[in-house]
Amino acid sequence: MSAVPVIKLHSGASFPQVGLGTWKAEKGKVGAAVKYAVTECGYRHLDCASNYLNEDEIGDALAELFESGAVKREDLWITGKLNNPYHHKEHVMPHLKKTLLDLRLDHLDLWLMHWPVAFKYLQEVTQAANPGAAKVDHSVSIRETWEAMEACVEAGLVKHIGLSNVPAIIVHDIMTYAKIKPAVIQNEMHPYCQQPALCEYARRLGIAMTAYSPLGTGSNHSWTGGDVLLQDPVLAAIAAKHGKTPAQVCIRWAVQRGTVVIPKSTHDHRIRQNIESVGFELDEEDMQKIAALDRNFHYLRPNDWYGIPLFCP
Ligand SMILES: NC(=O)c1ccc[n+]([C@@H]2O[C@H](COP(=O)([O-])OP(=O)(O)OC[C@H]3O[C@@H](n4cnc5c(N)ncnc54)[C@H](OP(=O)(O)O)[C@@H]3O)[C@@H](O)[C@H]2O)c1
């Protein structure tokens, strides 16, 4: 199997370009998926979030992997995310400590502000943490949250901090006061949502970009409509030309344009297929055809979920 390329962050750290996504990876399946990905397929990057409600099972899998000697902690890149109801400065570090407890780790490699908006505090992390606008807490600024995240780096609980679901203007604002600059921006990116201007802006600032929902978040997007990415005829033709699948074309395209990419699967054959995408190359004509598919189409529509016209990353 080809080695997974890395992106060098401004800290000098190596950020593996393909990772395993874990959103909607149900308990009862996610632990086995993580173990298979790491031991059988060479994944060294896991994308987690407290909001996915599965970090405890991932933590058990990680403990098993470390105890068995299958992999060392320092060889894995583990990303977590600060959930919206914990943005107040008093809640940020305790929330990270809960994540570390669940994942059974003493630090994360990367911690992202999951969404740039504070929700009212909730004692327990639940999916109900994503209700409507009534839950927005207008008393907490992004600056307050970012500074509390910086304190977590200073405390040695996380090596890098970053942002998710942000437009360039929020990044610009944070850059005016950040003592610790964002290392990574994680946004929805795939051939229908390429975000070229944000990618260029991040490149100039030395911030790495991670593409989430790189396969168009699978078939579970009836709630947002739009064409099914993996059924796109242009992608199908490029896939056929290389003897690959449309999913592999999407992942390879993300790697080749210099982003990190975190496809999710809990099925062994897809977990393997996805990381094997690093083992072939798209030519210039393929890349141009894929560039022409951009339509700034988001499968994830938080505006609809939260009822707040705030999110246009
Ligand atoms: N920061 C954020 O706000 C945010 C938002 C969304 C996602 N994310 C992260 O990004 C990760 C990936 O995004 P996502 O989960 O939305 O969707 P995705 O990776 O675009 O797509 C996952 C879906 O595609 C299917 N799939 C996986 N590999 C496939 C293949 N080779 N061929 C055909 N189908 C395949 C999966 O099914 P099976 O599992 O059944 O194989 C699943 O239904 C998430 O898991 C999460 O870690 C972050």
Automatic annotation (TrEMBL):
Active-site residues, as the UniProt record annotates them: 52
Site (Lowers pKa of active site Tyr): 81
Chain residues that bind substrate: 114
A GO term for molecular function: oxidoreductase activity
Listed Gene3D superfamilies: NADP-dependent oxidoreductase domain (3.20.20.100)
SUPFAM superfamilies given in the database record: NAD(P)-linked oxidoreductase (SSF51430)
Coiled-coil region(s): none
Keywords: NADP, Oxidoreductase
NADP is among the record's keywords: yes
Domain NADP-dependent oxidoreductase: 18-294
Protein family according to the UniProt entry: Belongs to the aldo/keto reductase family.
Protein name as catalogued: Aldo/keto reductase
Organism: Salpingoeca rosetta (strain ATCC 50818 / BSB-021)
